[in-house]
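Database export, one record per block. Field names are fixed; values are copied verbatim from the stored entry.
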Amino acid sequence: MKRLKNNIFLTIISFALIALSLVGCTSSKEINQVSDNKKTITIGTSGGYYPFTFSDNGKLSGFEIDVWNDIGKRLGYNVEFKTASFSGLFGMLESGKVDTLANQITISDERKEKYYFTEPTVYSGAQIIVKKGNDSIKSFDDLKNKTVGVDLGSNYEQIVREKGKGKNIKVVTYQNTDAAFNELLLGRIDAVVIDKVSALATIKEKDLALQLAGNPIDKLENAYPFRKTKENKEFIELVNSTLNDMQNDGTLKSISDKWLGMNVTVPNNDEGNVTSVVSKDKALSFDFMYSLKLIPMLITAVKTTLSLSIFGMIIGLIIGIILSLIRVYKIPVLKQIAEVYISFLRGTPLLVQLFLLYFGIPQVIPALKDMSAYTAALVGLGINASAYIAEALRASINAINKGQMEACLSVGMTPWQGLRRIILPQAFRIAIPPLGNIFVNTIQSSSLAFTLGVAELLAKAQMQAAASYKFFESYIIVAIMYWIIIEFFNYLQRILERKLSVY
Protein backbone atom coordinates (compact mmCIF):
# COMPACT_ATOMS: atom_id res chain seq x y z
CA MET A 1 0.00 0.00 0.00
CA LYS A 2 2.88 2.34 0.78
CA ARG A 3 4.34 1.71 -2.66
CA LEU A 4 0.93 2.42 -4.24
CA LYS A 5 0.69 5.75 -2.44
CA ASN A 6 4.21 6.66 -3.62
CA ASN A 7 3.26 5.90 -7.21
CA ILE A 8 0.10 7.96 -6.90
CA PHE A 9 2.12 10.86 -5.49
CA LEU A 10 4.63 10.63 -8.33
CA THR A 11 1.79 10.55 -10.86
CA ILE A 12 0.26 13.69 -9.35
CA ILE A 13 3.60 15.50 -9.50
CA SER A 14 4.12 14.40 -13.10
CA PHE A 15 0.74 15.67 -14.19
CA ALA A 16 1.32 18.99 -12.43
CA LEU A 17 4.59 19.39 -14.32
CA ILE A 18 2.86 18.53 -17.61
CA ALA A 19 0.09 21.03 -16.97
CA LEU A 20 2.57 23.76 -16.03
CA SER A 21 4.60 23.07 -19.15
CA LEU A 22 1.49 23.38 -21.33
CA VAL A 23 0.63 26.74 -19.83
CA GLY A 24 4.25 27.79 -19.77
CA CYS A 25 4.80 26.95 -23.44
CA THR A 26 1.78 28.94 -24.47
CA SER A 27 2.72 31.90 -22.32
CA SER A 28 6.32 31.91 -23.56
CA LYS A 29 5.11 31.86 -27.14
CA GLU A 30 2.86 34.86 -26.54
CA ILE A 31 5.60 36.73 -24.68
CA ASN A 32 7.99 36.14 -27.57
CA GLN A 33 5.44 37.42 -29.98
CA VAL A 34 5.06 40.57 -27.95
CA SER A 35 8.82 41.04 -27.68
CA ASP A 36 9.24 40.55 -31.41
CA ASN A 37 6.47 43.07 -32.08
CA LYS A 38 6.91 45.63 -29.36
CA LYS A 39 4.25 47.84 -30.90
CA THR A 40 1.26 45.54 -30.88
CA ILE A 41 -2.27 46.45 -29.88
CA THR A 42 -4.83 43.69 -29.38
CA ILE A 43 -8.46 44.44 -30.20
CA GLY A 44 -11.39 42.37 -28.91
CA THR A 45 -14.38 42.02 -31.23
CA SER A 46 -17.30 39.66 -31.76
CA GLY A 47 -16.97 39.23 -35.51
CA GLY A 48 -20.76 39.02 -35.65
CA TYR A 49 -22.05 42.58 -35.74
CA TYR A 50 -22.64 43.58 -39.34
CA PRO A 51 -21.44 45.92 -40.82
CA PHE A 52 -19.04 46.96 -38.07
CA THR A 53 -17.31 43.64 -37.48
CA PHE A 54 -18.16 40.41 -39.27
CA SER A 55 -16.61 37.40 -40.97
CA ASP A 56 -16.35 37.55 -44.76
CA ASN A 57 -15.25 34.14 -46.04
CA GLY A 58 -13.30 33.54 -42.86
CA LYS A 59 -11.70 37.02 -42.83
CA LEU A 60 -12.67 39.78 -40.40
CA SER A 61 -14.12 42.79 -42.17
CA GLY A 62 -16.18 45.87 -41.41
CA PHE A 63 -16.09 49.47 -40.24
CA GLU A 64 -14.25 48.74 -36.96
CA ILE A 65 -11.64 46.60 -38.69
CA ASP A 66 -10.83 49.28 -41.26
CA VAL A 67 -10.67 52.04 -38.62
CA TRP A 68 -8.24 50.16 -36.41
CA ASN A 69 -6.09 48.96 -39.30
CA ASP A 70 -5.72 52.60 -40.34
CA ILE A 71 -4.97 53.71 -36.77
CA GLY A 72 -2.34 50.99 -36.47
CA LYS A 73 -0.75 51.98 -39.78
CA ARG A 74 -0.53 55.65 -38.79
CA LEU A 75 0.87 54.95 -35.32
CA GLY A 76 3.22 52.18 -36.45
CA TYR A 77 1.43 49.51 -34.42
CA ASN A 78 0.72 45.94 -35.39
CA VAL A 79 -3.04 45.43 -34.91
CA GLU A 80 -4.19 42.00 -33.73
CA PHE A 81 -7.88 41.06 -33.47
CA LYS A 82 -9.27 38.49 -31.04
CA THR A 83 -12.84 37.27 -31.53
CA ALA A 84 -15.24 36.17 -28.81
CA SER A 85 -18.96 36.28 -28.15
CA PHE A 86 -20.16 39.73 -27.10
CA SER A 87 -20.87 38.50 -23.56
CA GLY A 88 -17.19 37.60 -23.16
CA LEU A 89 -15.65 40.79 -24.58
CA PHE A 90 -15.61 42.87 -21.40
CA GLY A 91 -14.19 39.88 -19.52
CA MET A 92 -11.30 39.83 -21.99
CA LEU A 93 -10.76 43.55 -21.50
CA GLU A 94 -10.99 43.37 -17.71
CA SER A 95 -8.50 40.49 -17.47
CA GLY A 96 -6.01 42.14 -19.81
CA LYS A 97 -6.43 39.67 -22.66
CA VAL A 98 -7.08 42.58 -25.04
CA ASP A 99 -6.17 46.27 -24.95
CA THR A 100 -9.54 47.60 -26.12
CA LEU A 101 -12.84 46.58 -27.72
CA ALA A 102 -14.09 47.41 -31.21
CA ASN A 103 -17.72 46.36 -31.27
CA GLN A 104 -19.71 49.61 -31.21
CA ILE A 105 -19.31 50.03 -27.47
CA THR A 106 -21.62 52.77 -26.23
CA ILE A 107 -20.28 55.34 -23.77
CA SER A 108 -22.29 55.34 -20.53
CA ASP A 109 -21.77 56.83 -17.07
CA GLU A 110 -21.33 53.37 -15.55
CA ARG A 111 -18.70 52.40 -18.10
CA LYS A 112 -16.87 55.73 -17.77
CA GLU A 113 -16.35 54.98 -14.09
CA LYS A 114 -14.38 51.83 -15.00
CA TYR A 115 -12.77 52.68 -18.35
CA TYR A 116 -11.15 55.47 -20.32
CA PHE A 117 -12.88 56.11 -23.64
CA THR A 118 -11.53 57.54 -26.86
CA GLU A 119 -13.42 60.25 -28.69
CA PRO A 120 -16.61 58.87 -30.28
CA THR A 121 -16.25 57.35 -33.74
CA VAL A 122 -19.95 56.72 -34.38
CA TYR A 123 -22.97 58.82 -33.42
CA SER A 124 -26.24 56.96 -33.52
CA GLY A 125 -29.38 56.19 -31.51
CA ALA A 126 -31.14 53.31 -29.77
CA GLN A 127 -33.78 52.25 -32.28
CA ILE A 128 -36.87 50.03 -32.05
CA ILE A 129 -36.99 47.44 -34.86
CA VAL A 130 -40.16 45.52 -35.69
CA LYS A 131 -41.29 43.01 -38.29
CA LYS A 132 -42.31 44.53 -41.60
CA GLY A 133 -45.98 45.46 -41.65
CA ASN A 134 -46.25 45.83 -37.88
CA ASP A 135 -47.59 49.38 -37.51
CA SER A 136 -48.91 48.85 -33.99
CA ILE A 137 -45.53 49.83 -32.50
CA LYS A 138 -44.53 53.42 -33.27
CA SER A 139 -42.97 54.58 -29.98
CA PHE A 140 -41.52 53.20 -26.78
CA ASP A 141 -44.91 53.47 -25.05
CA ASP A 142 -46.25 50.92 -27.53
CA LEU A 143 -43.84 48.31 -26.12
CA LYS A 144 -46.03 47.97 -23.02
CA ASN A 145 -46.75 44.27 -22.32
CA LYS A 146 -44.52 43.32 -25.27
CA THR A 147 -41.45 41.08 -25.57
CA VAL A 148 -38.27 42.93 -26.60
CA GLY A 149 -34.94 41.44 -27.64
CA VAL A 150 -31.55 43.03 -26.84
CA ASP A 151 -27.90 42.02 -26.92
CA LEU A 152 -26.71 40.42 -23.68
CA GLY A 153 -24.69 42.91 -21.63
CA SER A 154 -25.34 45.76 -24.06
CA ASN A 155 -26.32 49.31 -23.26
CA TYR A 156 -29.66 48.69 -24.99
CA GLU A 157 -30.67 46.26 -22.27
CA GLN A 158 -30.13 48.95 -19.65
CA ILE A 159 -32.03 51.56 -21.71
CA VAL A 160 -35.06 49.30 -22.14
CA ARG A 161 -35.14 48.28 -18.48
CA GLU A 162 -34.86 51.85 -17.23
CA LYS A 163 -37.39 53.33 -19.65
CA GLY A 164 -39.67 50.34 -19.31
CA LYS A 165 -40.29 50.57 -15.56
CA GLY A 166 -43.97 50.01 -14.93
CA LYS A 167 -44.69 49.00 -18.55
CA ASN A 168 -44.41 45.23 -18.02
CA ILE A 169 -41.88 44.84 -20.85
CA LYS A 170 -40.36 41.36 -21.06
CA VAL A 171 -36.67 41.74 -21.96
CA VAL A 172 -35.03 38.76 -23.69
CA THR A 173 -31.23 38.79 -24.10
CA TYR A 174 -29.28 37.25 -27.00
CA GLN A 175 -25.61 36.57 -27.64
CA ASN A 176 -25.68 38.81 -30.71
CA THR A 177 -27.99 41.05 -32.74
CA ASP A 178 -28.33 38.53 -35.55
CA ALA A 179 -29.89 35.99 -33.18
CA ALA A 180 -32.33 38.67 -31.97
CA PHE A 181 -33.25 39.65 -35.54
CA ASN A 182 -33.82 36.01 -36.43
CA GLU A 183 -36.17 35.60 -33.46
CA LEU A 184 -38.02 38.75 -34.56
CA LEU A 185 -38.38 37.43 -38.12
CA LEU A 186 -39.78 34.17 -36.72
CA GLY A 187 -42.33 36.12 -34.68
CA ARG A 188 -41.09 34.91 -31.29
CA ILE A 189 -40.55 38.45 -30.00
CA ASP A 190 -42.33 41.72 -30.75
CA ALA A 191 -39.37 44.06 -31.23
CA VAL A 192 -35.61 44.51 -31.00
CA VAL A 193 -33.83 47.56 -29.60
CA ILE A 194 -30.48 48.06 -31.26
CA ASP A 195 -28.14 50.61 -32.75
CA LYS A 196 -29.96 52.45 -35.55
CA VAL A 197 -26.97 52.69 -37.85
CA SER A 198 -26.27 48.96 -37.66
CA ALA A 199 -29.96 48.14 -38.11
CA LEU A 200 -30.24 50.32 -41.22
CA ALA A 201 -27.20 48.74 -42.84
CA THR A 202 -28.17 45.18 -41.93
CA ILE A 203 -31.79 45.46 -43.10
CA LYS A 204 -30.72 47.01 -46.39
CA GLU A 205 -27.80 44.70 -47.12
CA LYS A 206 -29.47 41.45 -46.02
CA ASP A 207 -32.87 42.47 -47.45
CA LEU A 208 -34.65 41.59 -44.20
CA ALA A 209 -38.40 41.91 -43.77
CA LEU A 210 -37.94 44.36 -40.90
CA GLN A 211 -38.60 48.06 -40.41
CA LEU A 212 -37.76 50.88 -38.04
CA ALA A 213 -40.47 51.92 -35.59
CA GLY A 214 -40.56 55.66 -34.96
CA ASN A 215 -37.58 57.73 -33.94
CA PRO A 216 -34.62 56.64 -31.77
CA ILE A 217 -35.50 56.35 -28.09
CA ASP A 218 -32.07 57.52 -26.96
CA LYS A 219 -28.92 59.14 -28.37
CA LEU A 220 -25.76 57.03 -28.47
CA GLU A 221 -22.06 57.75 -28.80
CA ASN A 222 -19.81 54.78 -29.52
CA ALA A 223 -16.08 54.69 -28.81
CA TYR A 224 -13.21 52.43 -27.71
CA PRO A 225 -12.78 51.60 -23.99
CA PHE A 226 -9.42 51.10 -22.26
CA ARG A 227 -8.62 50.00 -18.73
CA LYS A 228 -7.75 52.89 -16.44
CA THR A 229 -3.95 52.86 -16.38
CA LYS A 230 -1.40 55.62 -16.84
CA GLU A 231 -0.08 53.99 -20.01
CA ASN A 232 -3.55 53.69 -21.53
CA LYS A 233 -4.37 57.31 -20.72
CA GLU A 234 -1.28 58.40 -22.66
CA PHE A 235 -2.06 56.00 -25.51
CA ILE A 236 -5.63 57.28 -25.81
CA GLU A 237 -4.23 60.75 -26.50
CA LEU A 238 -2.34 59.29 -29.46
CA VAL A 239 -5.48 57.48 -30.68
CA ASN A 240 -7.61 60.62 -30.34
CA SER A 241 -5.04 62.64 -32.25
CA THR A 242 -5.03 59.99 -34.99
CA LEU A 243 -8.83 59.88 -35.13
CA ASN A 244 -8.85 63.67 -35.45
CA ASP A 245 -6.43 63.44 -38.38
CA MET A 246 -8.60 60.73 -39.97
CA GLN A 247 -11.64 62.96 -39.52
CA ASN A 248 -9.93 65.99 -41.05
CA ASP A 249 -8.54 64.17 -44.08
CA GLY A 250 -11.84 62.41 -44.77
CA THR A 251 -10.69 58.88 -43.93
CA LEU A 252 -13.40 58.25 -41.34
CA LYS A 253 -16.07 59.57 -43.69
CA SER A 254 -14.76 57.34 -46.46
CA ILE A 255 -14.84 54.24 -44.21
CA SER A 256 -18.33 55.14 -43.01
CA ASP A 257 -19.62 55.67 -46.56
CA LYS A 258 -18.06 52.38 -47.61
CA TRP A 259 -19.81 50.26 -45.00
CA LEU A 260 -22.90 52.30 -44.11
CA GLY A 261 -23.67 54.46 -47.12
CA MET A 262 -23.72 57.54 -44.87
CA ASN A 263 -21.37 59.50 -42.61
CA VAL A 264 -22.10 58.59 -38.99
CA THR A 265 -18.75 59.73 -37.61
CA VAL A 266 -19.93 63.27 -36.77
CA PRO A 267 -22.74 64.53 -34.49
CA ASN A 268 -26.07 65.41 -36.09
CA ASN A 269 -25.30 63.16 -39.04
CA ASP A 270 -27.64 62.23 -41.83
CA GLU A 271 -28.72 58.93 -40.27
CA GLY A 272 -31.25 60.85 -38.28
CA ASN A 273 -33.11 61.70 -41.47
CA VAL A 274 -33.64 58.07 -42.38
CA THR A 275 -36.68 56.63 -40.64
CA SER A 276 -37.52 53.58 -42.70
CA VAL A 277 -36.03 51.05 -45.01
CA VAL A 278 -37.92 49.38 -47.82
CA SER A 279 -37.30 45.69 -48.00
CA LYS A 280 -38.85 42.88 -49.91
CA ASP A 281 -40.58 39.88 -48.44
CA LYS A 282 -38.44 36.90 -49.24
CA ALA A 283 -39.77 33.43 -49.66
CA LEU A 284 -38.31 30.83 -47.35
CA SER A 285 -35.90 28.60 -49.22
CA PHE A 286 -32.92 26.39 -48.54
CA ASP A 287 -29.65 27.36 -50.24
CA PHE A 288 -28.01 23.97 -50.69
CA MET A 289 -25.01 25.37 -52.55
CA TYR A 290 -24.28 27.82 -49.72
CA SER A 291 -24.10 24.91 -47.27
CA LEU A 292 -21.67 23.10 -49.55
CA LYS A 293 -19.48 26.19 -49.83
CA LEU A 294 -19.20 26.32 -46.05
CA ILE A 295 -17.77 22.82 -45.73
CA PRO A 296 -14.10 23.56 -46.67
CA MET A 297 -13.93 26.47 -44.26
CA LEU A 298 -15.64 24.54 -41.47
CA ILE A 299 -13.33 21.55 -41.92
CA THR A 300 -10.39 23.73 -40.88
CA ALA A 301 -12.31 24.54 -37.68
CA VAL A 302 -12.92 20.81 -37.07
CA LYS A 303 -9.21 20.48 -36.29
CA THR A 304 -9.61 22.92 -33.40
CA THR A 305 -12.72 21.14 -32.12
CA LEU A 306 -11.05 17.72 -32.26
CA SER A 307 -7.82 18.87 -30.63
CA LEU A 308 -9.75 20.50 -27.78
CA SER A 309 -11.88 17.39 -27.30
CA ILE A 310 -9.17 14.72 -27.59
CA PHE A 311 -6.49 16.45 -25.55
CA GLY A 312 -9.11 17.65 -23.07
CA MET A 313 -10.21 14.02 -22.64
CA ILE A 314 -6.60 12.92 -22.14
CA ILE A 315 -6.14 15.53 -19.41
CA GLY A 316 -9.44 14.43 -17.90
CA LEU A 317 -8.37 10.77 -17.92
CA ILE A 318 -5.06 11.50 -16.19
CA ILE A 319 -6.68 13.57 -13.46
CA GLY A 320 -9.72 11.26 -13.26
CA ILE A 321 -7.60 8.12 -12.69
CA ILE A 322 -5.69 9.86 -9.91
CA LEU A 323 -8.87 11.13 -8.26
CA SER A 324 -10.61 7.76 -8.47
CA LEU A 325 -7.64 5.95 -6.86
CA ILE A 326 -7.45 8.58 -4.12
CA ARG A 327 -11.13 8.03 -3.30
CA VAL A 328 -11.05 4.24 -3.61
CA TYR A 329 -8.03 3.88 -1.30
CA LYS A 330 -9.22 6.74 0.96
CA ILE A 331 -5.89 8.53 1.17
CA PRO A 332 -6.15 11.00 4.08
CA VAL A 333 -6.50 14.70 3.25
CA LEU A 334 -6.28 14.03 -0.50
CA LYS A 335 -9.60 12.16 -0.31
CA GLN A 336 -11.37 15.21 1.15
CA ILE A 337 -9.75 17.52 -1.42
CA ALA A 338 -10.79 15.18 -4.23
CA GLU A 339 -14.38 15.11 -3.01
CA VAL A 340 -14.61 18.93 -2.91
CA TYR A 341 -12.95 19.14 -6.36
CA ILE A 342 -15.44 16.70 -7.90
CA SER A 343 -18.41 18.29 -6.16
CA PHE A 344 -17.50 21.78 -7.39
CA LEU A 345 -16.92 20.75 -11.01
CA ARG A 346 -20.08 18.64 -11.21
CA GLY A 347 -22.15 21.27 -9.41
CA THR A 348 -21.25 24.31 -11.54
CA PRO A 349 -21.84 24.95 -15.28
CA LEU A 350 -18.89 24.45 -17.63
CA LEU A 351 -19.34 27.98 -19.00
CA VAL A 352 -18.87 29.43 -15.51
CA GLN A 353 -15.73 27.32 -15.06
CA LEU A 354 -14.29 28.55 -18.36
CA PHE A 355 -15.01 32.19 -17.48
CA LEU A 356 -13.51 31.70 -14.03
CA LEU A 357 -10.38 30.10 -15.47
CA TYR A 358 -9.81 32.60 -18.28
CA PHE A 359 -11.18 35.87 -16.90
CA GLY A 360 -11.32 35.46 -13.13
CA ILE A 361 -8.20 33.63 -11.95
CA PRO A 362 -5.75 35.88 -13.91
CA GLN A 363 -6.96 38.81 -11.79
CA VAL A 364 -5.90 36.90 -8.67
CA ILE A 365 -2.81 35.27 -10.21
CA PRO A 366 -1.34 37.83 -12.67
CA ALA A 367 1.18 35.27 -13.95
CA LEU A 368 -1.70 33.50 -15.74
CA LYS A 369 -2.73 36.63 -17.63
CA ASP A 370 -0.79 35.50 -20.70
CA MET A 371 -2.53 32.12 -20.83
CA SER A 372 -4.08 31.78 -24.28
CA ALA A 373 -7.78 31.25 -24.86
CA TYR A 374 -7.05 27.85 -26.43
CA THR A 375 -5.06 26.72 -23.39
CA ALA A 376 -7.78 27.93 -21.03
CA ALA A 377 -10.47 26.11 -23.03
CA LEU A 378 -8.35 22.94 -23.17
CA VAL A 379 -7.62 22.92 -19.44
CA GLY A 380 -11.23 23.84 -18.64
CA LEU A 381 -12.64 20.98 -20.71
CA GLY A 382 -10.07 18.62 -19.19
CA ILE A 383 -10.72 19.39 -15.54
CA ASN A 384 -14.49 19.38 -16.10
CA ALA A 385 -14.33 15.95 -17.73
CA SER A 386 -12.02 14.67 -14.97
CA ALA A 387 -14.75 15.00 -12.33
CA TYR A 388 -17.13 12.77 -14.27
CA ILE A 389 -14.36 10.35 -15.29
CA ALA A 390 -13.28 10.01 -11.67
CA GLU A 391 -16.77 8.97 -10.59
CA ALA A 392 -17.16 6.54 -13.51
CA LEU A 393 -13.81 4.88 -12.74
CA ARG A 394 -14.46 4.79 -9.00
CA ALA A 395 -17.74 2.99 -9.58
CA SER A 396 -16.01 0.57 -11.99
CA ILE A 397 -13.22 -0.23 -9.55
CA ASN A 398 -15.70 -0.79 -6.73
CA ALA A 399 -17.63 -3.17 -9.01
CA ILE A 400 -14.62 -5.52 -9.09
CA ASN A 401 -14.81 -8.23 -6.45
CA LYS A 402 -12.43 -7.32 -3.61
CA GLY A 403 -11.39 -10.94 -3.43
CA GLN A 404 -9.42 -10.45 -6.65
CA MET A 405 -6.99 -8.07 -4.96
CA GLU A 406 -6.66 -10.50 -2.08
CA ALA A 407 -5.87 -13.24 -4.58
CA CYS A 408 -3.20 -11.02 -6.16
CA LEU A 409 -1.56 -10.42 -2.79
CA SER A 410 -1.69 -14.12 -1.97
CA VAL A 411 0.44 -15.00 -5.01
CA GLY A 412 3.10 -12.42 -4.14
CA MET A 413 1.95 -9.42 -6.15
CA THR A 414 2.31 -5.95 -4.69
CA PRO A 415 -0.85 -3.83 -4.38
CA TRP A 416 0.32 -1.70 -7.33
CA GLN A 417 0.94 -4.80 -9.49
CA GLY A 418 -2.49 -6.18 -8.64
CA LEU A 419 -4.09 -2.85 -9.43
CA ARG A 420 -2.24 -2.38 -12.72
CA ARG A 421 -2.45 -5.97 -14.02
CA ILE A 422 -5.81 -7.19 -12.73
CA ILE A 423 -8.11 -4.49 -11.30
CA LEU A 424 -7.67 -1.51 -13.66
CA PRO A 425 -8.00 -3.52 -16.94
CA GLN A 426 -11.35 -4.89 -15.73
CA ALA A 427 -12.43 -1.50 -14.43
CA PHE A 428 -11.68 0.18 -17.76
CA ARG A 429 -13.68 -2.48 -19.62
CA ILE A 430 -16.67 -1.75 -17.39
CA ALA A 431 -16.13 2.02 -17.69
CA ILE A 432 -15.91 2.17 -21.50
CA PRO A 433 -19.61 3.06 -22.09
CA PRO A 434 -19.71 5.92 -19.54
CA LEU A 435 -16.27 7.14 -20.69
CA GLY A 436 -17.59 7.18 -24.26
CA ASN A 437 -20.54 9.30 -23.17
CA ILE A 438 -18.21 11.70 -21.35
CA PHE A 439 -16.07 12.04 -24.49
CA VAL A 440 -19.15 12.78 -26.62
CA ASN A 441 -20.18 15.43 -24.10
CA THR A 442 -16.66 16.90 -24.25
CA ILE A 443 -16.90 17.21 -28.04
CA GLN A 444 -20.23 18.99 -27.73
CA SER A 445 -19.01 21.20 -24.87
CA SER A 446 -16.06 22.39 -26.96
CA SER A 447 -18.54 24.72 -28.69
CA LEU A 448 -18.39 26.90 -25.54
CA ALA A 449 -14.76 27.73 -26.31
CA PHE A 450 -15.90 30.59 -28.56
CA THR A 451 -16.97 32.53 -25.48
CA LEU A 452 -13.24 32.77 -24.72
CA GLY A 453 -12.30 33.64 -28.29
CA VAL A 454 -11.42 30.21 -29.72
CA ALA A 455 -12.68 29.92 -33.28
CA GLU A 456 -13.89 26.31 -33.23
CA LEU A 457 -16.51 24.66 -35.44
CA LEU A 458 -19.68 26.30 -34.11
CA ALA A 459 -17.98 29.70 -33.81
CA LYS A 460 -17.08 29.70 -37.50
CA ALA A 461 -20.65 28.80 -38.40
CA GLN A 462 -22.05 31.55 -36.15
CA MET A 463 -19.89 34.19 -37.77
CA GLN A 464 -20.87 33.04 -41.25
CA ALA A 465 -24.54 33.00 -40.30
CA ALA A 466 -24.23 36.52 -38.91
CA ALA A 467 -22.78 37.73 -42.20
CA SER A 468 -25.22 35.96 -44.51
CA TYR A 469 -28.35 35.51 -42.36
CA LYS A 470 -28.53 31.96 -43.68
CA PHE A 471 -28.97 30.50 -40.22
CA PHE A 472 -30.58 27.23 -41.23
CA GLU A 473 -28.00 26.49 -43.92
CA SER A 474 -25.12 27.27 -41.54
CA TYR A 475 -26.38 25.40 -38.51
CA ILE A 476 -27.67 22.31 -40.33
CA ILE A 477 -24.27 21.67 -41.90
CA VAL A 478 -22.61 22.14 -38.49
CA ALA A 479 -25.09 19.74 -36.88
CA ILE A 480 -24.34 17.12 -39.56
CA MET A 481 -20.58 17.55 -39.07
CA TYR A 482 -20.91 17.11 -35.29
CA TRP A 483 -23.09 14.05 -35.94
CA ILE A 484 -20.50 12.48 -38.26
CA ILE A 485 -17.65 13.14 -35.81
CA ILE A 486 -19.52 11.65 -32.87
CA GLU A 487 -20.76 8.64 -34.85
CA PHE A 488 -17.16 7.94 -35.91
CA PHE A 489 -16.01 7.84 -32.30
CA ASN A 490 -19.07 5.79 -31.34
CA TYR A 491 -17.99 3.28 -33.99
CA LEU A 492 -14.50 3.12 -32.50
CA GLN A 493 -16.04 2.68 -29.06
CA ARG A 494 -18.10 -0.31 -30.24
CA ILE A 495 -14.99 -1.92 -31.74
CA LEU A 496 -13.12 -1.43 -28.48
CA GLU A 497 -16.00 -2.90 -26.48
CA ARG A 498 -16.03 -6.01 -28.69
CA LYS A 499 -12.28 -6.43 -28.37
CA LEU A 500 -12.33 -6.16 -24.60
CA SER A 501 -15.38 -8.39 -24.20
CA VAL A 502 -13.35 -11.41 -25.40
CA TYR A 503 -12.03 -13.38 -22.43
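Remark 1: The two ends are 29 Å apart (CA to CA).
Remark 2: Residues 1-37, 272-283 have pLDDT under 50 and may be disordered.
End of record.
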